[in-house]
Structures are given as C-alpha cells and as structure tokens.
Amino acid sequence: MDIDKLFKVPKLPTGGNKRKLPDNPTPELLKKLKLESNSTSDITPSTPNIGVGSVRKATVEDIEDENDIMNYAPGGDADYFAEEDEEGRFYGGGLTSEQKEILNIFEKAEGSSVDSTAQDLSITRIRKLLLTFERAVHKNQDQRSKYPNDPTKFIDSEADLDSALKALLPLSQSPSLAYPELARSGAITLLVGLLTHENVDIVIDVVELIYELTDEDAEIDYEDDDYEKSEEAMSILVDALVENQALDLLVDNLARLNESDEADRQGVFHVLGIFENVVGFNPALSTRLISKTKLLSWLLARIQAKTHDENRGYAAELLSIFLQDNTDNKLEFGRNDGVEIVLKVLSQYRRRDPADADETEFMENLFDALCSALSESSIKQLFLDAEGPDLMILMMKEKMESKSRSIKVLDYAMSGAAGTALCQAFVDALGLKTLFNAFMGKSTKRQKNTVDLPATEDVAHILGIISSLLTNLPSESASRIRVLAKFVEGDYEKIDKLLEIRDAAHKRLMKTDADIDNDRKVCSSGEEAITPDIEDGFYIRRLDGGLFTLQTVDYILAWLIMEDDGIQTHAFRMLDRKNQSLKDIIRTLKLYQEHVGDDTPTAEGVVSQKDILQGLISALDTP
Fold first, then answer.
1. What pairs with residue 42 in β-bridges?
2. Rounded Cα distance, 521 and 325, in Å
3. CA distance 151 to 158
4. Which among 423, 413, 347, 345 is positioned nearest to 374, based on CA atoms?
5. Phi and psi for 306 in degrees, rounded to 5?
6. Helix (H) / strand (E) containing 270
7. Most CB atoms within 10 A, among 9, 475, 480, 536?
8. d(Cα 617, Cα 597) in Å, to the nearest integer?
9. Of 136, 125, 246, 270, nearest in space to 189 by CA
C-alpha cells in the first residue's frame, strides 16, 4: 500500500487565501467566480506524492479572517442576537441565513396568510401573469398551426400553457383588482377561446379557472373589505363571459367530456358549478341557459342515468334551481317532456329508499323541481296526462322516504282552479282512503297495529289537499259527497283531529303574538315608527307561528259546517268545550280575506279565493 497516496496535499488554497462572499452576491459575481475556479482547476498540476514526515509539515491551520471573528453565534444562527423579547431574553431560531431564506421562500409559495397573498397580487403582478398567459396562448397556437401532425413540436408550449392557466387561479382572491384587468386586457376572450382547444386537458384547466373565478366566495375581497367593489368586479367578469358566449361553449363541452375518466368527470362537475355560480349572481341568466342552449336536455338525460354519482345529483340540483320562480323555464321544462321524465325517475323510489344521503338529496331535488313546475296550469295538465296522481298515491301507501314528498307534490298539483281536474282524478284513483289514513296516522294493511303520526309538514300539506278538494270539487257531485262522508265516518273522528290541530295552532299563535307585542313595545320605547313594512313582517311571523295552519283548518271547518248538519252539531259541541264558537272561525276567515290579494288573476268564470271566503263568511254569519 502506498501510504503517500493517503496523505495528499489538498488542492484547495489555504484559509489565508480564501475569499469571503458578500451576504447577497450578484449573479455577475457568481459567474466570474465560477470562471476563475474552472480556469484554476484546469492549470493546477497534480500534486506529487510526498512522505509521511512531509505530510505533518503540510498540515494547515486556517488563519482567522477578520470577518470570522464576529461569527461565533451557536450554529451560525443569523438572528441569535437579534431576537429578544421585552425582558431582554434571547431566542435564537437555530437557523442560518440561508436556511431562513429557504423557509421564507416556502412560506411565500404556500401563501401562509391573506396579507402575503394580497402583496403578491398587485396590479403589476396581475398584469405580468396575464402577459405570460397571453404569450403562452399565442405560442401554442403558432406551434400547433405550424406542426399540426407532430405533437412533439408543440407539447412544450402546451405544458407552458397549462402552467400559465394554473398561475391565474390566485386571481380569485382579489376580484376587485383582478377581474376588471381580466376584462380590459382581453384575457377573458382568450380564456373563452380555449374552451374549443383540441386538448381536453387544456379545456378542463380553463373550466377549473372559470369555476374558481365565479365562485361565490370570490365576491368578498378580504384585502379591501369592500363588498360592493368586489360585487361590481364580479359583475364585470360575468358580463364578459356572457358576451363572449362562454355559457354556450361550456354547454357544448358537456357532451365532449367523457365522465368515465376522472379528470373529465371533475370537469363536468366544475361546468355545472359555473352555471350555479353565475345564476346565483344573476338569476336572469337561467332563462338564457334554458332557452338558448341544450343544457335542459342534457340535465334531463343526466338524471336518468342508471347509477347514481355526484354529477347526477348536481344535475337534479340545477334543475330544481332553474325552475324556481321562473315561468319561462317551467314551460320549457314541460315542452321537453320534463314532467314525464322526472316521474319516471322518481318511480324507482316507490318501493325502495335512496341508498345514502347524496341520493336522498337527489330525490328531494327532483320532487322540489316538480313542485315548482306545478304552479303552471299547463304543467298540471301534463302531470295529469302522465298519471302523476296515481304514482303519488301509490307512494303515499308505502312507508318509504318518498311518502312525505308525494303528499307535498299532490298539494301543489291540486291547488288553485287549475287543479280541479287533478282533484277529480285523485278521488277517482281512490286517493281519499290513503290520504285520510295518513291524516289520522293509520298504517297500511301490512301494519295495522301500528300508529305512525304524520310529521308537521305532512299535516300542513294534507290540510292543503283537503282544502283544494273542498274548493274545486263541484257542489252535490259524487266526488264531493265522498269527501264529506269521510268526515262523518268513525264517529266524526276526523273532525276531532281537525279541532286538535286547530287548538295546537291557536296556542302557537298566542305565543307568537306575545313575542310580537314585546317587539312593538321595544319600537315604541325607542320612538321608532312602525312602518307598513314592519307590519308586513309581523304578519309573516304570525303566519309562520300558527296563523297559516289556523286559517287552513278554519277554512275546511267552514265548508264542512255549512254543508253537513251532523258535522255542524258535533263541531259546535267540541268548540264549546274549549270556550270557543263559530265566531272564532268567522274572525279567522275575515283576517284571511283581508290579506288575500285583489289583483290575483283568475280565468274567466272562475271564482276568486277572496270571493269564496266572502261567501263562506256570509253563509256562516247569517243568524
């Protein structure tokens, strides 16, 4: 073994010759040092082997540099002497300057606070991001046009475009600053144009970005704490998207995306999310989406899928949202066979419950969509033609989750003068027995010995159905006589049930009135005038606090008392036991009539609700 080889003289210069770098060396200095180092290593000859004794003489001790004298903090901690509290205690972080700089870089990248993000998203920074994005778009377009059949030529530009799109995601954190710049710079036009990109992954990136930008949380500008300014910025963004036909292109991409792929499935979810976001900001856009695009057809097809998933549930939710308080959308829903499709999908829940909470929400959204649509007369007719009453009655017989929803649908369907045909169909389909079994809490034939009291919401809708039957069925008709007979049978047990509900509603209303009286006193003590708007608010509170139920029950009792002597005698006797009388019912009906609008449109030859109430009051108030 050649021992001399183990003890070579080091090639590096001794400590006395080493150079100290400044704390922040410039790139030019680093390049210069690198060149000098390379040239030195190139001309330095190999060191010859020397003996052991010589090695000992060659042992080198670094000469202390003047700058090293002060570098005696433990571990080279740069802040060891800088970090002290008010009492003079020192807390060294144990990190060098280089380590601290690295940590600061990571904290900045992670966006550890809203303030740091706000500093990053200056107008200059936003413009740089948009410029980078614009260049990436043009470069990708240029290379794709030059080499359309050679993906290797444009794959790098596609990756750059992907990165540029993802870099725009933080813009949603500063809408008041970023959104006007997005519209002004033409970036919105470029974004919308990318929705037709050949690469579906790029399309999905754009969809995700628009989803984040339109998210309702983006409306709050935490930096400015200026909601109105952020809302104005959101309006600029949404208007720009609509002007550039973004909604139409998004709908077109629903057919393009393949939901068997996870990324595409997430893309569909984000597209639906964009529709919800923009409609939530501007409800009028729902009419445009339904009438000008193929979205409704896609939604109706999507809810018919055999297997349930997140996007199927989202489709049902959007359907429910679009049909709320929008006559045009309801009519379009009917023209697209929406009633029959929804009934077909709901029929599966006649004999089985939804598998989980998500599917339960899906089912509820479809029932809600149907209820919203049934406010239109033409939809009521379509519901009748599709044998909707028969399906709802079958659902009422089963002890499934769909039972309560079917009662609600029937209440909406049979209400109003346009519900007359549905009331007749309900009686013809033997719905009275099922309805009153639910009203009394009686079980089906398979469970005769059990009592299942209806939920409060079910009771309200059952009362609504009975009210519609008494309003719409012709006088002296066989169907109306069958309804009256139901209240006579069982020793007037259903009249007793009505009075029981009336008593509970009356007690709730008394408590509500006491609370309102206290609020009136507070207003008076504060010298605050009780305006008509405040009075309307009080009346709404009374409706929710028992008055609505009381009005419905007394309306039903008024019809029954007027038409059947036996019911009248029994009802008077039971009311007298509670120190009440017919006058209390009349008083309720008068209050009801006062708040029924005069401008409610009615078809020719149809008696208005106000006139019906006046007729009942006159008939009962006659000595």
1. none
2. 37
3. 10
4. 413
5. -70, -35
6. helix 262-281
7. 480
8. 17
9. 246
Q: Pull the structure tokens for residue 477.
A: 């008709």
Q: Given this model, what pLDDT does residue 304 score?
A: 97
CB-based contacts of 178: which residues, under 8 Å, 6+ apart? Answer: 121, 126, 171, 172, 233
Q: What is the DSSP string of 169-237?
A: GGGGG-HHHHHHHHHHHTHHHHHHHGGG-S-HHHHHHHHHHHHHHH-GGGGS-TTTT-HHHHHHHHHHH
Encoded tokens for 251: 């709908």
pLDDT of residue 32: 55
Residue 80: its pLDDT value, please? 43
Question: 558, 620 in Cβ contact below 8 A?
Answer: yes
Residue environment code for 11-38, b if the CB has 16+ CB neighbours within 10 A, otherwise e: eeeeeeeeeeeeeeeeeeeeeeeeeeee
The full 3-state SS of 371-421, as one line of letters, equals HHHCCCHHHHHHHHHCCHHHHHHHHHHCCCCHHHHHHHHHHHHHCCHHHHH
Which amino acid makes up residue 352? R
Coil, strand, or helix at residue 305?
coil
Residue carrying structure tokens 């209050």: 591
Q: Which residues contact 2 (CB under 8 A, 6 or more apart)?
A: 49
Dist. CA 354–CA 366, nearest whole Å: 13
Tokens of 81: 């002497």
What's the N-to-C CA distance of the chain in angstroms? 133
Give the chain's count of helices (H) and strands (E): 30, 0
Q: pTM for the complete prediction?
A: 0.78
How far apart are alpha carbons 479 and 323 in whole angstroms?
A: 33
What is the per-residue pLDDT for 81? 46
Q: Is residue 603 left, alpha or beta, with left meaning phi > 0 and alpha meaning psi from -120 to 50?
A: beta
The answer to whether 314 and 250 have CB atoms below 8 angstroms apart is: no
d(CA 411, CA 386): 17
C-alpha–C-alpha distance, residues 406 and 389, integer Å: 9
Residue 430 gets the label, from left (phi > 0), alpha (psi -120 to 50) or beta, of left
- The stretches in the chain having pLDDT less than 50 are 1, 3, 5-20, 23-24, 27, 30, 34, 37, 39-60, 62-75, 80-91, 111-118, 221-224, 445-449, 599
CA distance 548 to 563: 23
- Look at residue 233 in the predicted model and tell me its pLDDT: 92
pLDDT of 623 reads: 63
- Whether the CA torsion 569, 574, 579, 581 is positive or negative: it is negative
Residues written for the chain:
623
Residue type, 49: N
SS3 451: strand
**Structure-token pair, residue 322:** 């679009």
Amino acid present at 383 = F
